[in-house]
Design brief:
Blueprint (H helix, E strand, L loop, with lengths): L8 H30 L6 H38 L4 H15 L5 H29 L43
Helix pairs in contact: 1-2, 2-3, 3-4
């Protein structure tokens, strides 16, 4: 989805929180169902899978929602502050989000997480730009007229060019004026 198709910023934050929660909950449900089944005894694998999903999938969804909410809030703040929407906003938002989420571990952990978040978002944005350019259609836009081959026109016999008559050669009315 291109930048122009996105919702305005206040709505974008809530939309990203909901989308991140759904991704985390679904992904966590799949992951924890497999993990719960593997860690359960042979006869109770289905029950262990369901219990693991019920216990851990909402937690992972909540963690994703916090990350998505912080990222989107930083992104909207940078769009407002810089007055432009470009990949640098996403890279800085990833760095800020990583730093804030690791702030409880001290400044070293926060700076390491900020660097990882910035590098990760730089790789994502770089890949996005690369794929956009690679997949771009190199044909002319649909509203441009198609380039059609026009055969050369046959030569017409040259016609004499009419010359401009002088005022003495023009016909005048010889009837008397009354």
């Amino acid at each position: 989805m291109s930048v122009q198709e996105r919702d305005p910023c206040p709505h974008r934050i809530l939309d990203d929180i909901g989308g991140a929660f759904a991704m985390g909950a679904i992904g966590g449900g799949i992951w924890n169902s497999v993990k719960g089944a593997r860690n359960s005894p042979r006869g109770e694998r289905l029950l262990g899978s369901i219990q693991s999903v019920r216990a851990r999938a909402p937690v992972l969804g909540g963690n994703f929602a916090v990350w998505g909410g912080l990222f989107s809030t930083f992104d909207c703040s940078l769009v407002w502050l810089r007055r432009k929407e470009d990949p640098w906003n996403s890279i800085a938002s990833g760095a800020l989000t990583g730093g804030v989420l690791a702030a409880r571990g001290g400044w070293r952990a926060a700076s390491r997480s900020a660097a990882v978040g910035g590098v990760l978002l730089a790789m994502i944005e770089g890949l996005n730009i690369f794929l956009t350019r690679m997949m771009a259609d190199s044909s002319p836009p649909p509203y441009a007229p198609p380039a059609v081959y026009a055969p050369p026109m046959p030569q017409q016999p040259s016609m004499p060019v009419p010359r401009k008559a002088a005022s003495s050669e023009l016909m005048t009315d010889s009837a008397p004026q009354s």
